[in-house]
Amino acid sequence: MEINVLLFELALTFYLLSTITGVIELFRRRKATSNATRYLAIIGFLFHSANIVVRYIQGGHIPIMTIHEASSFFSWCILLLFFFHEYRYRLGLLGSFIMPIVFILMLSSSIFPREIKALSPVLKSYWFGIHVTLAFVGDAAFAMACGIGIMYLVQERYVKSKHLSRLFQKLPSLETLDAINYHLITLGFPLLTLAIITGAIWANTAWGTFWRWDPKEVWSLITWLIYALLLHLRLSYGWRGRKASILSIGGFLFILFTFFGVSLVMKGFHVFG
Known about the structure:
Elements lengths: L2 H25 L3 H29 L7 H23 L4 H17 L15 H36 L4 H5 L3 H34 L7 H23 L3 H25 L8
Helix pairs in contact: 1-2, 1-4, 2-3, 3-4, 3-5, 4-5, 5-7, 5-9, 7-8, 7-9, 8-9
């Protein structure tokens, strides 16, 4: 077994274990379970990082050329933001809602071919690294916002039903969740904006046109409009809380379609190898 494959399988295994302990934590929260969720995720992240480094060395570029690599790198970016926000905000049960997203993306990655492909000549540009990093980190922020949105809806359900169970006591307040959701959207939106701008500049350099109506360009623009609408409704009409959470979850579904659906069912310049 190649070293990069072994590292990937180890990362996937530890993410699965972290997801399982995270789900258990929802129903029987104990300090040992909470620590297990975090430490298993960290160990998996270290193996995952090593996998990305090895593929970078072997391929000579950021490993996002195939759908296997792109889904794996997407998961890695989500975890990077997860660790930062867990450390900064000390959010109870955050891993229970984020790790399933990470694991599903990694599991999806595992079913696709894992060969390392060379960059095509048109991709050999310094814009490549800038564009893809902005896009992936921006999408990771939206994935986090989706997880926070789900947490908000669960907590709101308990508040409205006045059934204040143990899970209610474990989750952060609605105000905290809404504020972090907004923070993540305001992080992801400018990154997505810059990704689209740098992609247009890169396209003009490579093909002499800023926009080619490629399917992924079109769906990226649609996704951008959805999050622009979310911010507009929040700032101008006070759409907070439940409405903002639902839009965050819906927006992430468009992210997933743009990421997977366009690549699998449509043809274009942005389809993964």
